[in-house]
Recover the amino acids of this structure.
C-alpha cells in the first residue's frame, strides 16, 4: 500500500504542474499535505514536517544559491566567463570542449557539494555554448555527470564519508575504487551521452542572468583575473580543507579555519573579491553592481521556492517512515549483497527523492550484512552511492534545480537529467560488480 500511495502522490504532483498548470511551489504544498494524510502522519505534525523540510533544505542551500547567482552574474556581465570560454576553446578546440567541461566539473566537484559546483559552472556552460554556437546539453550533460559522480561516490562528500564510517571501510581505498569506477562512468555518461542527437537538438533559452551579449576583446578582463575570480571558491575550499585536516581540533586556529571553510563563508568571500576585481577595479560603480546582483536574485527567486517545495515533499515522505518500510521489504531478497545494497538505495531514492537519505537509509539496513563479512565494505559504499543516484524526478530538489537553471520543460528534464542519473547509477552498479570480480 505504501508504494501505491507514494506513486499516487508523484502522479498527482506531475498532474498539478504539467496538466493543470499549478505553480510548482503550491503544487508541492498540496501534494505534501495529501501524502502526509495518506501515509498516516498525524494532522498536528504535517505542517511541522513541511516547515522542517523547507527549513532544512533551504538552510543548506539558500545562501550558496543566492551568492552563487550574484557571482555568476558578475562573472558573466564582466566578460570573465567569455574570457574563460575562449581559453577552453583555444586549449581543447571546439571538437573536444565538452571534455574540457567534464574535466573542469570533475576537479571542481571533488571538494564542492553538487549544488555549489552546479551554481558556479552553469554560467561557464552557457558562455561557451552561446559564444561558439554549441548545443547547451552537449556541455551541460558532461558537467552534470561529473558533479553527480563526485557527489555520490567520492569522499569527502557527506554520504560516502558517512557510509565509510558505518561500514568500517577504508576511506583511501574507497576513494581509489571510486576513481577507478567513476572516471569511466563520467566518460560514458558525460561527453558520450551528451552527443545523443535528441539532446543536441534541445532548444534551450538561458535565464536572463546568463544571457549576456559577447563583448569586444578590449573590454574583457585578463585571463588570470577571470580564472582566479571564477574558481576562487574552489581554491579556498581545497586549501582550507587541507589546512583543517592538518590541525588538531583543540588548536587555537582550528575554529577560525573551520569557519572560513564553510561553503557559505567561502561564497561570501569570493563574491566580495569578484565585486572588487571584476567590478570596482574596472570602473563600475558599486551601486550599479548591486543593481545587477538584485536582478540576479530576482531571476532565481522562483527556483528557490520550487526547491523549497521539493524539500517539504521529501520530508513528509521521510517522516512517514516510507524509506524504512521499503528497505525492510527489500532486505528479504536473496541476491548478491552489492546488488541488494544498490537496489535498496535505488528504490528509496525513487520513492523519497533525496540521494543522501537513500544512501544513509540503505546503509543502516545493509550494515548487518557487511558487519558479518558479507560483501566488501569499500565496494558496498560505492554500490549504495550508485543506487542513490538513480532516476531523479519531481520529488528531488536537484531535478528542479536543473530544470529551472537550464530553462527546460518537465519532459526535457526527464529526457536529459533523469536519463543521465539513471545511466550513471546503472553504470556504477556494473562497475562495482566488475571490480568485485578482481578483488
Amino acid at each position: 500500500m505504501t508504494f501505491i500511495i507514494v506513486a499516487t502522490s508523484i502522479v498527482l504532483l506531475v498532474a498539478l504542474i504539467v496538466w493543470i498548470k499549478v505553480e510548482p511551489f503550491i503544487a508541492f504544498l498540496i501534494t505534501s499535505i495529501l501524502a502526509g494524510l495518506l501515509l498516516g502522519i498525524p494532522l498536528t505534525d504535517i505542517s511541522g514536517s513541511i516547515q522542517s523540510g523547507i527549513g532544512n533544505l533551504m538552510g543548506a542551500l539558500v545562501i550558496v544559491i543566492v551568492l552563487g547567482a550574484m557571482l555568476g552574474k558578475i562573472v558573466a556581465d564582466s566578460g570573465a566567463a567569455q574570457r574563460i570560454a575562449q581559453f577552453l576553446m583555444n586549449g581543447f578546440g571546439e571538437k573536444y570542449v565538452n571534455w574540457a567541461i567534464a574535466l573542469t566539473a570533475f576537479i571542481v566537484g571533488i571538494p564542492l557539494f553538487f549544488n555549489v559546483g552546479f551554481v558556479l559552472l552553469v554560467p561557464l556552460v552557457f558562455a561557451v555554448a552561446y559564444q561558439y554556437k554549441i548545443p547547451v546539453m552537449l556541455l551541460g550533460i558532461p558537467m552534470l555527470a561529473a558533479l553527480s559522480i563526485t557527489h555520490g561516490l567520492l569522499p569527502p562528500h557527506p554520504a560516502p564519508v558517512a557510509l565509510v564510517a558505518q561500514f568500517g571501510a577504508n576511506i583511501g581505498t574507497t576513494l581509489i575504487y571510486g576513481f577507478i569506477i567513476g572516471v569511466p562512468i563520467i566518460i560514458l555518461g558525460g561527453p558520450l551521452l551528451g552527443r545523443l542527437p535528441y539532446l543536441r537538438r534541445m532548444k534551450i533559452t538561458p535565464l536572463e542572468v546568463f544571457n549576456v551579449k559577447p563583448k569586444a576583446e578590449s573590454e574583457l578582463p585578463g585571463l588570470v583575473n577571470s580564472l582566479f575570480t571564477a574558481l576562487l571558491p574552489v581554491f579556498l575550499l581545497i586549501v582550507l580543507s587541507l589546512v583543517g585536516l592538518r590541525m588538531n581540533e583543540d588548536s587555537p586556529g582550528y575554529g577560525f579555519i573551520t569557519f572560513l571553510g564553510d561553503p557559505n563563508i567561502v561564497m561570501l568571500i569570493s563574491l566580495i573579491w569578484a565585486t572588487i576585481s571584476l567590478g570596482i577595479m574596472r570602473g563600475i560603480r558599486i551601486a550599479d553592481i548591486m543593481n545587477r546582483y538584485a536582478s540576479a536574485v530576482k531571476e532565481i527567486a522562483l527556483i528557490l521556492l520550487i526547491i523549497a517545495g521539493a524539500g517539504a515533499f521529501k520530508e513528509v515522505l521521510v517522516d512517514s517512515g516510507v524509506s524504512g518500510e521499503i528497505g525492510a521489504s527489500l532486505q528479504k531478497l536473496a541476491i548478491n549483497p552489492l546488488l541488494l545494497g544498490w537496489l535498496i538505495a535505488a528504490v528509496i531514492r525513487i520513492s523519497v527523492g533525496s540521494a543522501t537519505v537513500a544512501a544513509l537509509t540503505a546503509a543502516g539496513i545493509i550494515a548487518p550484512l557487511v558487519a558479518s563479512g558479507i560483501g566488501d565494505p569499500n565496494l558496498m559504499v560505492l554500490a549504495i552511492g550508485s543506487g542513490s543516484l538513480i532516476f531523479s524526478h519531481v520529488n528531488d530538489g536537484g531535478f528542479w534545480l536543473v530544470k529551472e537553471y537550464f530553462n527546460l520543460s518537465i519532459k526535457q528534464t526527464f529526457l536529459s537529467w533523469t536519463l543521465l542519473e539513471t545511466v550513471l547509477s546503472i553504470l556504477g552498479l556494473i562497475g562495482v560488480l566488475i571490480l568485485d570480480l578482481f578483488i
Q: What stands out?
A: The mean pLDDT is 88. The radius of gyration is 22 Å. The CA atoms of residues 235 and 249 lie 22 Å apart.
